[in-house]
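Lab notebook: predicted structure, single chain.

Context: the supervisor wants predicted structures on file for every construct in the current expression panel, including those that have not yet been purified. This is the next one on the list. No modifications to the sequence; it matches the entry in the shared construct table.
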Amino acid sequence: MVDVSAKAVTAREARAECRVRFPADVATQLRGSGLRSAKGGIVDTAVIAGTMAVKRTHELIPFCHPLPIDGCRIAIDWEGDHSLRIECSVRTTHRTGVEMEALTGATVAALTVYDMCKALSHRIVIGPAKLVGKRGGRRDVGTLA
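Prediction complete. Output recorded below exactly as produced.
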């Protein structure tokens, strides 16, 4: 684990996103159902799973520091006819950033969508997942808006 004790405590923020692409017939079925599957509300469940993952990232990624999460927002919406876009924004005030938390939140939310829809098709595709932006620390990257 990297020693961050000499770093300044600053406000830090990161935003990541992930896509879930459905076969056309599955997307049509999901749109007609209001994004519900036999397991329940897909979006609500994915938001809860992603938020839980953000808070437990340090338990999943071996060298991540446990961080106090000041804010976490997950947004899920259709992008085009066949894909969901999942965006995870995370904030903390600490000595290290929250890029891994944002990426973990977005991807676990995507995995949850897959799990809730796999009875409809195993041809669902997850990804790409990417860091969209981060602020705080040594340098800012990308955009957060």
